[in-house]
Amino acid sequence: MGKRPPFAQMEAMYRLRIIPEGTPIPTEIVTLHRATEVLTTIPELLRRHRNCQRIEVCAGTTALFAVDGKGRLLDQDAPAQ
User: Are 65 and 42 in contact (CB under 8 A)?
Assistant: First the structure.
């Protein structure tokens, strides 16, 4: 079996920022390496952070999406509350 190209060896890094009500400063930042982990971790974070206004999901420096405190997808074009 041949060597894998360098880009195939890189792991994606996803960051989930938990933003509480009334402040833009995250109370926790979670780093994950797989998209499937992102989707399964969001409900757990919402249970742990009951005062969560939103969870922002980024890959590197690119914002991917955000969910509100109930786990509903937020419209990216809507102004932040």
Answer: no
Domain span at residue 43 reads 10-68
Q: The tokens of 47 are what?
A: 């249970």
Contact 28, 49 (CB under 8 A): yes
Cα 57 from Cα 52, distance rounded (Å)? 14
| 1 or 18, which is more confident | 18
This prediction's pTM:
0.78
Residue 74 lies in a domain: no
Please check whether residue 42 lies inside any domain of the structure: yes
CA-to-CA dists, residue 4 to 7, 33, 74, angstroms: 8, 19, 38
